[in-house]
Design brief:
mainly alpha; rod-shaped; 5 helices
């Protein structure tokens, strides 16, 4: 939304806040209450969205600053596997762990 529309909406809401609902007729009062409820919900959604954006920005920052904590280099895995390739027990346990993860989602 553009700033102009946002300012116009805020001006209308500010004006509505000065209205005394008790002096309105039934239809106008119902409309007034609906508008105020929509405005309150808009503010709640806006706050929730801002909170989510901040949270995602923090996650993204953490990921890029500490990516080595989250990602294991493929070359490192190959090196470990190749170094232990002659060790038959290691190979069997590695294959077994892959099968367990595939079958049981571990």
């Amino acid at each position: 939304m553009s700033n102009l529309i946002e300012k116009e909406i805020q001006n209308i809401l500010d004006e509505l806040n000065t209205v005394r609902p008790e002096v309105l007729n039934t239809e106008a009062k119902r409309l007034f209450e609906a508008i105020m409820k929509i405005a309150d919900e808009r503010d709640e959604y806006k706050k929730a969205l801002i909170k989510r954006i901040k949270y995602w920005n923090e996650l993204e920052k953490d990921l890029f600053e500490n990516c080595s904590n989250y990602v294991v280099n493929k070359d490192k895995i190959r090196e470990i596997y190749n170094n232990n390739e002659n060790n038959d027990n290691y190979r069997k346990s590695w294959i077994l762990s892959k099968r367990i993860k595939k079958n049981f989602g571990a």
